[in-house]
Specification:
Elements lengths: L5 H6 L2 E2 L16 E2 L10 E3 L3 E3 H10 L7 E4 L12 E4 L1 H7 L3 H6 L15 E3 L5 E3 H19 L14 H4 L1
Antiparallel strand pairs: 1-2, 3-4, 5-6, 7-8
Length: 170
Amino acid sequence: MERPTPAQRFAAKVDTTGPWSLRRNCPGPCHLWDSSLNNKGYGTFWNGRTVKAHRFAYEQAHGPIPDGLEVDHQCRRRACVNPGHLRAITHRENILASSNHVAARAAVTHCPANHAYDEANTYRAPDNTRKCRACKNARSRAARAAQRDARLAPVAPLRPRTTPTLERAA
């Protein structure tokens, strides 16, 4: 009996009748991985060493993954190995295509005070987050004004000195 090739072993572990993706640009149903999944939900496959199933599927359909790129699931299902749902993109594009908090913050174009996050009005804080320069300047002006007002605050007048009266002396 002949030993099955890696491609045959891979195909035996794929359910091609998976659900249809609700995302655009994902033709056909998801091909769900029926074998082992890692703790993050990605399929794993043994091909001389453990590889991620979606990366193996992409390499079988499109060739090697270019340096600096990673495989993205357009359908957003980590167990999907349908080559039509996989694309090679940069890490930044992959993060921004997701629905996590990083992508949500990157999509914001204006600060809460409606100032644009553009080159002239944006600076990076030490923690690498975007900050609005106009709002920072307004906060600094308000803090300096509060400090100035505290230094120049009116002092409550002292009680006037009273002369002793006979009633008090007695």
